[in-house]
What we know:
about 100 residues, Alpha-Beta Plaits
Amino acid sequence: MTVGLLTFELHLPDAHSLKAKRQTVRRIKDRLRSRFNISIVELEQHQELWQRAGLAVVSIAGNRDAIERMFEAIRSETERMSPGPVIETARDYLEAEGWE
């Protein structure tokens, strides 16, 4: 079993207020949650900036390859939905043997 963590930042050039930013981030989070079996949260580091957001995604799968494929699909979907660039900041994995 593998636990994966993907973190990335979004640049939101069209957000001219915190309300506009939060609407965009909420829409992206809701879409990713409904399409993939993941947990997703907005990171605190950019919460007061209008045009930047940090997101963290966590998922569990039977092997690392499955999570890597999912993370690629999540990144592609986020790039498609985001009005600005998506900058991946980290991928971390925790491998657990015998947890089945």
